[in-house]
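Page 47, continued from p. 46.
Same chain as before, 159 aa.
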Amino acid sequence: MKLYLKQKIFSIGDKFFVYDANGEERYRVEGQLFSFGKKLHVYDCNEREVAFIRQKVMAFLPRYYIEKEGVEIAEVVKKFTFFYPKYEINGLGWEIEGDFFDHDYEMVSGGQTVVTVSKQWFTLGDAYEIDIAPGVDEVTALAAVLVIDACLDDQKSSD
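Result:
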């Protein structure tokens, strides 16, 4: 299944829209203003919260938690490296590989690609194609991609 994440250029706080291959809105992601650490709420098209992402504030390296229905399902941790960013997803058994700065990477489980992310060029605002393997929960995959995007955004802001 393919999803397309599109960020608004001018919005107060984080706001993302996620569409399916037919251009139909599937999810809306909204950041929480005035909070300690980044917090993102993922809503389906029926306005029901399907995932919640929160950043651990007092951490040496970025660390995020993914919750579904109030239960923590994964922890995404940026690993300490000198040359390129590396992330680990605890709880899902996924590894992340690729070029994060160009938003061209994949998430792998047991040697099988579960999610592929690629940046869509020549669009107004940032846009990404997320290709999710059959049998993989799309909300979990979307939440993991949003965490990597949040980490890269934090890094861009601190540079």
